[in-house]
Amino acid sequence: MDQDLERILIDRTAIAGRIAEIGRDIVSDLGEDCESDGIVLVPIMTGSITFIADLMRQLPLRVRIGLITASSYRGTAVESSGEVLLEGEHLPESLEGRHVLIVDDILDSGGTIRRVREEIESRKPKSVRTCVLLRKKIESAMETPCDYVGFDIENEFVVGYGLDFDDYYRNLPDIGVLKPEIIEMHQSNAE
Ligand code: IMP
Ligand code: MG
Fold it and tell me: Under CATH, what is the fold of the domain 12-26+36-155?
């Protein structure tokens, strides 16, 4: 697994340190409001599983979790297909009057966050905020409004800490870049 990485981009210690900071920011923005209304975290599956597990433990608030599954990358692609599919949800019955924080692993074209935000807003919550661990330094990502961003990274395909390639590598504890020959091998096997 680790031997498939060309290099580590952000290691587990840096990730943990940054998540503690984001947690503090969220608590200072939302802490008071949450005392009465609580907050519903909505991680976008599947890439956010690791991030949400760590982030929620930095939030000493009245927190509930709702899940939504979206996909824009298909199989062995390393670029967004541009079309976002909402494939399922497990949300509280009503979000009306609730504070919602949408959480995703990475902001790329921005399509996923926009589509999920639309869906959540249609349920009339009291507020909607967004949080991503990574944001690519490309126009589409930088122009997508996002309240909390962990790290801005170069425009390259990354895996680990929940992020996958062809559904693998989510379990790597650090975030890294795959060796090009590994990507080629998966792509030629898929043909
Ligand atoms: P967007 O809709 O183009 O912003 O893409 C966001 C989704 O694509 C994320 O939720 C990720 O699941 C996936 N994604 C985007 N970039 C990467 C990457 O570099 N590695 C793995 N998955 C990615
Ligand atoms: Mg995703």
Answer: Rossmann fold (3.40.50)
